[in-house]
Write a structure and sequence with these properties.
Distance between the termini: 34 Å
CATH topology of the largest domain: TIM Barrel
Number of helices: 15
Bound molecules: 1-O-alpha-D-glucopyranosyl-D-fructose, calcium ion
Structural class: alpha/beta
CATH architecture of the largest domain: Alpha-Beta Barrel
Oligomer: single chain
Shape: globular
Helix content: 25-40%
Radius of gyration: 23 Å
Strand order of the largest sheet: 11-10-9-5-2-1-13-12
CATH class of the largest domain: Alpha Beta
Largest sheet: 8 strands, parallel
Strand content: 15-25%
C-alpha cells in the first residue's frame, strides 16, 4: 500500500486512560466510552500500548499470551467491540508488537525451561553468562534450573531466539491473528535489537555492554523484510518501529520504501538531548540542541515519526516547557512545533491538555520497574538518596503514566487509581478545556484541522531558517504555499531581526500586532500563498 502521510496518531496507555469498572485500572470498555472524544480530536489512528495477557512486571510489555486479552483490561469480546466501534468512527487501531522478548510466564518459556524439544531453543540459553548489561541497568542474565537466559529488559522478560525458525512462524501467526481481526498494523517494540548475531562478551560500556552484538544487525533487517513480505503486505497496514540508538542513516535503512521493512521509526535522538554524562542522574535542557537535532532528522531522514511524549518519557511541558508560569503557552508551543514538522505526528494521551509530570513525594509512590531498578543502580554508583529521588521525580516513566485527567476530580476512576493521580487535575482537565475555545485541547484540534486542510503541512519540504539559543524558525513549502513556523523557547521576550512573510495562520498568543518581539514561549505559523 505504501506510506500514508495524512495520518495523525493518538497513543493510549490503557492502564491509565479510563476505568470502566471502578477497580482503579483503565480498561477496554473505558476506551470505548471515550471514542467520541478521540474522534472529536480529529485523529485517524489509535495506538494501543499492550493489552495482551501479562503478569505486568513491565505493565504489559511482558506478554504471557499474544492471543489473549489481559483480564484486567477486559475480554476478547471487548477488544472486538473496540475494533468495530473505532472503525464505525473511521478510526484505525494499531497494536504494540513486542517480539524481542516475552514474559517468563509465557507457555513457550515454561516449556523452554523444561527442555521441551520444540521450545528449548525459543530463548537464549547459556551455561555461563557473558558480560552484557540490561536496558534497566544491571546484568542481562538470570538463572533458572542451573542455566542462564538472556533478558535485555527485566528478568521477567526473557529474549526470544530469532535464530529459531519456529519463533518466526509463531510470531507471524500472531500478527495474522490480529490483522485478521481488523487491526491496521503495529508499533514494533525495540525492534532493532531483536537479532543477536553472537553471544560473545561486549566491549565494556557505561550503558549496554554487549550492544555491538545485537544492535541494528543485518539479521534484524532480514527478519523485518520477511515480516513485511510474508505477512504485512498481504494486508493494508501501517508500521512504526521503536528503534533505540539509531542514526539518521540507520533510520533510512529501516524505512526507505525499496527496503521493504517499516513505514517509519521512533528515534530517541531528541529524547537524549537533555541527558548529560550519564543517562539517569543529570539532565539539562538547552533548546538549541533540540532545534539542531530535529533539523538534522528533518533534513536527512525520509519520513519521521514525530513525538515529544509517550509512556516512557516525562511530560514534554514539564521537560521542554515551563509547566508553572507558562503552562498553557508552552504546551501550545510544543504542539505548534510538533505539527509544524514534516512527518507523522503522534500525540500521547493527556498531551492534548498539557498534562504535567506526576506529583510523587516518596519512592513508594512509583510503580514502574525501570524507575526502581535505576534508583537501586544509582545507590551502587554511590549517588546520594536525595539526588536519586529528585532525578526519578524528573525522569521516571510514571510521570507519563498518571491517570488521564478528565475532570476536576480526575474522572479516571471511581475507585482507587493504580498510580497516584496528579492533584493538578483540579485545573488541568478535559472538561474544563472543552468549554474554553482557547484551551490547549482546542488548540490541538485546530492544528489537526489545519494539517488536514493544507497539503503543505503534510507534504511540504523542510528548511531551517533560524536557530538561536532560544528560537527556532523553519519553512515548509510546496507548489502552492510556504509555511513559516516560529517557536520561542524562553521565559523572556526576545526581539529578532526578521521580516515575517505571509499571514498569521495560527498563534499561541492572540496579539494585536505580530511584530519582531517574541513573547515568552510564543509560537506562530505564517502562511503565504504562492502566486
Ligand atoms: O522501550 C524500550 C526502551 O528503550 C525503554 O526501555 C527506554 O530505554 C526507557 O524506557 C527510557 O526510560 C520499550 C517500551 O516502550 C517500554 O515501555 C518497555 O519497558 C520496553 O520496550 C521493554 O519492552
Ligand atoms: Ca478497570
Amino acid at each position: 500500500m505504501g506510506l500514508n502521510r495524512d495520518l495523525v496518531v493518538y497513543q493510549i496507555y490503557p492502564r491509565s486512560f479510563k476505568d470502566n469498572n471502578s477497580d482503579g485500572i483503565g480498561d477496554i470498555l473505558g476506551i470505548i466510552s471515550k471514542l467520541d472524544y478521540i474522534k472529536s480530536l480529529g485523529v485517524d489512528v489509535l495506538w494501543l500500548s499492550p493489552v495482551y495477557k501479562s503478569p505486568n512486571d513491565d505493565n504489559g510489555y511482558d506478554i504471557s499470551d499474544y492471543k489473549a486479552i489481559n483480564p484486567e483490561f477486559g475480554s476478547m469480546k471487548d477488544m472486538d467491540k473496540l475494533i468495530s466501534e473505532a472503525s464505525l468512527r473511521g478510526i484505525k487501531i494499531i497494536m504494540d508488537l513486542v517480539i524481542n522478548h516475552t514474559s517468563d510466564e509465557h507457555e513457550w518459556f515454561k516449556k523452554s525451561v523444561l527442555g521441551d524439544p520444540k521450545y528449548k531453543d525459543y530463548y537464549i540459553w547459556k551455561d555461563k553468562p557473558n558480560n552484557w548489561t540490561s536496558f534497566f541497568g544491571g546484568k542481562a542474565w538470570d538463572q533458572v534450573n542451573g542455566k542462564y537466559y538472556l533478558h535485555l529488559f527485566s528478568k521477567k522478560q526473557p529474549d526470544l531466539n530469532w535464530h529459531n525458525s519456529d519463533v518466526m512462524n509463531d510470531i507471524q501467526d500472531v500478527m495474522k491473528f490480529w490483522l485478521d481481526k481488523g487491526i491496521y498494523g503495529f508499533r514494533c517494540d525495540v525492534i532493532n535489537i531483536i537479532f543477536k548475531t553472537s553471544l560473545e562478551n561486549g566491549k565494556k560500556r557505561f550503558v549496554l555492554t554487549g550492544k555491538e552484538h545485537y544492535h541494528q544487525q543485518e539479521g534484524m533487517h532480514e527478519i523485518l523484510k520477511r515480516l513485511r513480505t510474508e505477512v504485512l503486505d498481504k494486508y493494508n497496514t501501517f508500521t512504526v518501529g521503536e528503534t533505540v540508538m539509531v542514526t539518521p542513516s540507520q533510520a533510512n535503512d529501516l524505512i526507505l520504501p525499496f527496503r521493504n521493512e517499516l513505514d517509519m521509526i521512533f528515534s530517541f535522538a531528541h529524547m537524549e538531548i537533555d541527558q548529560i554524562n550519564n543517562k539517569w542522574f543529570k539532565t539539562k535542557f538547552k533548546p538549541k540542541k533540540l532545534f539542531d537535532c530535529l533539523s538534522r532528522w528533518q533534513e536527512e531522514v525520509y519520513w519521521n515519526a514525530n513525538y515529544f511524549e509517550n509512556h516512557d518519557q516525562p511530560r514534554s511541558v514539564s521537560r521542554f516547557g515551563n509547566d508553572v508560569e507558562y503552562h498553557i503557552e508552552s504546551a501550545k508551543l510544543l504542539a505548534t512545533l510538533l505539527f509544524g514538522l514534516k512527518g507523522t505526528p503522534y500525540i500521547y494521551q493527556g498531551q492534548e491538555i498539557g498534562m504535567t509530570n506526576g506529583y510523587f513525594v516518596d519512592m513508594s509512590e512509583f510503580k514502574d520497574t525501570e524507575t526502581h531498578q535505576i534508583y537501586k543502580l544509582g545507590k551502587k554508583l554511590g549517588i546520594p538518596k536525595k539526588i536519586r529521588f529528585k532525578m526519578m521525580q524528573k525522569t521516571s516513566r510514571d510521570n507519563a503514566r498518571t491517570p488521564m485527567q478528565w475532570n476536576h476530580n480526575g474522572g479516571f476512576t471511581s475507585g482507587n487509581p493504580w498510580l497516584k493521580q496528579n492533584p493538578n487535575c483540579a485545573h488541568i482537565n478535559v472538561l474544563e478545556q472543552e468549554s474554553k475555545p482557547d484551551s490547549i485541547l482546542n488548540y490541538y484540534r485546530k492544528l489537526i484541522q489545519l494539517r488536514k486542510k493544507y497539503h503543505v503541512f503534510r507534504y511540504g519540504s523542510f528548511e531551517a531558517i533560524l536557530k538561536t539559543k532560544t528560537t527556532f524558525m523553519f519553512k515548509r513549502s510546496n507548489d502552492t504555499h510556504d509555511l513559516y513556523v516560529i517557536c520561542h523557547f524562553s521565559n523572556k521576550s526576545k526581539k529578532i531581526n526578521h521580516v515575517f512573510e505571509g499571514d498569521i495562520l495560527i498563534s499561541n498568543l492572540p496579539k494585536k500586532v505580530y511584530d519582531n518581539v517574541l513573547s515568552p514561549y510564543e509560537a506562530r505559523i505564517y502562511i503565504k500563498e504562492k502566486k
